Amino acid sequence: MSHVSGCDGEASLEPSGYRVVNLSTAANVHGLHVLVDYIVEVNGQPVDGSLPLGVLLAGTKGPTAEVMIYNLIENSVRSVGIIRNPMGQFSLGATVRYEYIQEAVENAVKVISVKKDYPGDEAGLVAGDDYLIALGSGETLNGTAPLYKAVQALDPSKLEGVSVYAFSVRESTVRRVELIPRMEPNNRYVLGIELEETSLPLEEIKGQSSTVQPWQLLQSKREIGTQTEELSSQLFQYVMSTNC
């Protein structure tokens, strides 16, 4: 998490961490969840983005590095132990990017309608339930422009598609879907979906509250002892300071 200025000029904490943007191993032995898991502590120390995650893990003295992971959708924290491999290295098995958690909340594209038998329908997108949150590369969809840009960059001579991550409110899950655009007679790609730039509807997610932000709820979690209590207190203090 990163230090920012509070209302009175004093330092406060803005919730942030290393966001899991892609899994680099099929096994995923650490049970990571793409785009909704954030590594917020390494060996009991909050992260601030000043060093790559690999460097922080390499600084572990013992055989196991302990990382604390915050899950945005489940609104929970958990501790995961990463064991040194035979070469003496710590492998997370994922690609991560340091981000503020609020960015994920504020940037989403809601699927408003899906035209039958068009690419969006064939990919299984559900109108009113699915929110597109990132491209397959892990790039956050801060609006519809990145998606349309990726579509226009496709080679018309090849049967190519654009991978996106979709979050289902009903299922509270993130899945990867492949959109293969259809070429219309006017040489224009179409997906057959109507989109709306919005934010993630956390108030509609099971277990979430419409009046309390997810990091505020962390202050009530006591799942993994003292470390969780200290982290929750820091996050709660930040939220309170921004409301002054």
Write up what this structure looks like.
The protein is α+β, with helices and mostly antiparallel strands and 244 residues long. The protein has a domain at 105-200: Pdz3 Domain, CATH 2.30.42.10. Helix content is 18%, strand content 34%. The protein is built from 6 helices and 15 strands. The strands form 4 sheets. Strands 3, 4, 5, 6, 7 and 8 form a 6-stranded antiparallel β-sheet that branches. A hairpin with a 2-residue loop joins strand 4 (37-42) and strand 5. It is elongated, with a radius of gyration of 20 Å. The two termini are 21 Å apart. 30% of the residues are buried. Mean pLDDT is 81; it is low at 1-12 and 217-226.
Global mean pLDDT: 81
List low-confidence stretches: 1-12, 217-226
* End-to-end separation: 21 Å
CATH class of the domain at 105-200: Mainly Beta
Shape: elongated
Q: Name the CATH superfamily assignment of the domain at 105-200.
A: PDZ domain
Number of strands: 15
Quickly count the helices: 6
Q: In percent, how much strand structure appears in the residues?
A: 25-35%
Which architecture of the domain at 105-200 per CATH?
Roll
Radius of gyration: 20 Å
| CATH topology (level 3) name of the domain at 105-200 | Pdz3 Domain
Helix coverage percent of residues?
Answer: 10-25%
Secondary structure class reads: alpha+beta
Most strands sheet: 6 strands, antiparallel
The run of helices and strands is EEEEEHEEEHEHEHEEEEEHH
